[in-house]
Amino acid sequence: MGNGFNFLALLYICFVLLHTVPVLYEKYEDQVDAFAEKPRPSSRNNMLCSM
């Protein structure tokens, strides 16, 4: 019974996220796209430069 409850909770969380994330993305599309375009430092490049 415990395994079934965990699986159902996971399904419920996925269901809620699948219906919430697209709405939030449409609402905040400009901010999300601006954040996604920012370059992120690569840890590999930082390690190579410090050697």
From TrEMBL:
Sorted keywords for this record are:
Endoplasmic reticulum, Membrane, Transmembrane, Transmembrane helix
Q: Does the keyword Nucleotide-binding apply?
A: no
Q: Which GO terms describe its cellular component?
A: endoplasmic reticulum membrane
A GO biological process held by the record: response to bacterium
One Pfam entry for this protein is Reticulon
Indicate the transmembrane segments per the record.
7-25
Positions of the Reticulon domain: 1-51
Major location, coarse class?
endoplasmic reticulum
Give membrane topology per the record. Answer: Multi-pass membrane protein
InterPro entries documented for this protein: Reticulon (IPR003388), Reticulon-like (IPR045064)
Provide the protein's localization: Endoplasmic reticulum membrane
Q: Does Membrane count among this protein's keywords?
A: yes
PANTHER family per the record?
RETICULON, RETICULON-LIKE PROTEIN
Question: What name does this protein carry?
Answer: Reticulon-like protein
Record organism? Buddleja alternifolia
